[in-house]
Amino acid sequence: MDTTNTEQIETKQTTPETPATQQTEQASVRPEYPGDKGEYKVVLDRNDLVETKKVATFSYGQRVRIAALSTPKYEEMLDHIIQVAGWARTTRMGGKDFAFIELTDGSGSATLQVVVDSSMPNFTQVSKANVGTSFKIKGKLIRSPAKGQLVELQVCHPESHAVQIIGDCPGDSYPLAKKKHTVEYLRDIAHLRPRTKLISAVTRIRNNLAYATHRFFQERGFLYIHTPCITASDCEGAGEMF
Questions:
Q1: Mean pLDDT over residues 104-114, rounded?
Q2: Cβ count near 204 (within 10 Å)
Q3: Which residues fall within 8 angstroms of residue 59, CB to CB, at 6 or more apart?
Q4: Exposed, middle or buried: residue 75 (CB in 10 Å: 0-12, 13-18, 19+)?
Q5: Which domains does the chain have, with CATH numbers?
Q6: pLDDT confidence of residue 137
Q7: What does the radius of gyration of the chain's CA atoms come to, in whole angstroms?
Q8: In this model, does residue 11 exceed pLDDT 80?
Q9: What is the rounded distance in angstroms from the CA atom of residue 95 to the CA atom of residue 92?
Q10: DSSP state of 65
Q11: Which DSSP category does 64 fall into?
Q12: What's the distance, CA 35 to chain centroid?
């Protein structure tokens, strides 16, 4: 038997491999700390004022909200045909050739004056409309030549303009007249009182307060949840039925 080959085999089996030893030595050495940029400071940005929130221009059906006509956006719509909808706060005749409608849609405190020309097919019906009548009107937005409003809606071209009465309102039984009403009187007509300037202004203020409160907490990571109400009240003896 050749002893030289035996020694070579035993030597290969007992001698450790050099690459494994190098990996073990490298793993035991910790890398140096590269440093950092310092502690991150949390700064809460102040929210914009509620008055600067965006005013929506369009509503359902591609109609322009009357509140948007009180913003600088109205200049982009000048001399264009727009469509609005709402109810008449006041109506009056301007002689035999014109009918004036003060239109509001509840989107803001401002109203839009609509001038309907006698050339419109349903001018007779429009001229007899009372306060509270609901309209859907398409016309040309122009700068108002009169004082008191920036723009007005001109309805004078039967081919491209239109005045549609959505809901007629009887003048003899409509409880909201042009005069000022007391709060006690408005309690009896709760379904119509949002049309008044007072209640509509209060509603918009409450909306802005709720909007600002929710925005404040939402931007700071809070969640709006409805917690369950646990009560021991027994209404009309319902707990004794079972």
A1: 92
A2: 15
A3: 65, 105, 107
A4: exposed
A5: 50-167 (2.40.50.140), 183-218 (no CATH)
A6: 95
A7: 37
A8: no
A9: 9
A10: P
A11: B
A12: 47
